[in-house]
Amino acid sequence: MLGAWLGAACLFNPVTAQALQVTGLQTPESFLADPAGNGYFISNANGDPDVKDNNGFITKLDKAGAVAMLQFIKGGEGTTVLHAPKGMAIVNNTLYVADLDALRAFDTATGRPLLTLPFPNRQNGQATALVDVTYDGQGLLYASDTAANTIYRIDMAKQHAISVLARDQALAGPRGLAVHPKTGHLIVASWDKGKILDVAPDGTISELVSNGFFTARFHNLDGVDFDSWGNLYVSDFTAGKVWRMRPDRHFDVIAEYLPSPGDIGVDRENHLILVPYHYGNAAEMNGLEAPVKANPKKRTLADYGFSGPSSLQESEAKKGPAPK
């Protein structure tokens, strides 16, 4: 295994007794499950993740997690342009990919280019550098630009019209994006300050979790996603950890000593966590444990080491009615 998985039930290969791993990647950035259950996609920057060199590619895995095609979509082949692909989102049969100053769309079955959506320059005239993209299930895509402290909203019903959802120093280097399954708000992982933020549909920013004065729990947060039970997962690129936050905001480290975990994803249908290792040129799939349910059985005195009747009520009942 590429790291120590502490709170996850590993997907073991019966031959190697290892978690399922994908090797042969080149600077993998993001790992995504197809919601339709047709497989998985991994984006590869293939070199400098900030350079327009048109050599990025997307790896496609089959339903079992085996490599179906290492370079399923490849920059420079035919009419395909793909420089340094990072975050991805799937809407129906379309794969959206954040690629520096453009959002690109491809057919998930064939890899055929469908759309290139260029983004405007930043306010200082520099080119936009998109890092992640997510879909809210209601016709809106969201994309983050870490260096510009900006989150964009893309309205698919209006010919992919681009607007700014939030642009604020409080975003502290927004990187990973996910949509909260209950509130519909955008959940943002902060790269610069190690924060987890909530961004409402009107752009209002709220802190969910941040490092305290005496506790520097997080370093550079990268990917974020939810499982089917409502737990949130976030990867810490620099610390090499994956954290789980339960709905009651209790945190657990479920993996550590990982080599640069990037933009993680969760396969909610099969209860798997998907982790790309940026500098490790590999990726890994592990099973997620179901929440531990409380024992509904009422405790009795026997639970605390007392022998005899399980409760005072039972003891009194056995004595029978009091004599008259």
Structure overview:
This protein has 324 residues and is an all-beta fold. The chain has a single domain, classed as 6 Propeller (Neuraminidase). The chain is built from 1 helix and 25 strands. The chain has a 5-stranded antiparallel sheet, with no helix packed on it. Strands 2-25-24-23 form a 4-stranded antiparallel sheet, with no helix packed on it. A hairpin with a 5-residue loop joins strand 19 and strand 20. It starts with a strand and ends in a 5-residue tail after the last helix. Residues 12-17 and 299-318 have low confidence and may be disordered.
Report the order of strands and helices.
EEEEEEEEEEEEEEEEEEEEEEEEEH
Count of all domains = 1
Count of separate DSSP helical elements: 1
By CATH, the superfamily comes out as: TolB, C-terminal domain
Which spans of ≥5 residues are poorly predicted at pLDDT below 50?
Answer: 12-17, 299-318
Shape: globular
Descriptive keywords:
four-stranded antiparallel β-sheet, Neuraminidase, 2% helix, 324 residues, mainly beta, five-stranded antiparallel β-sheet
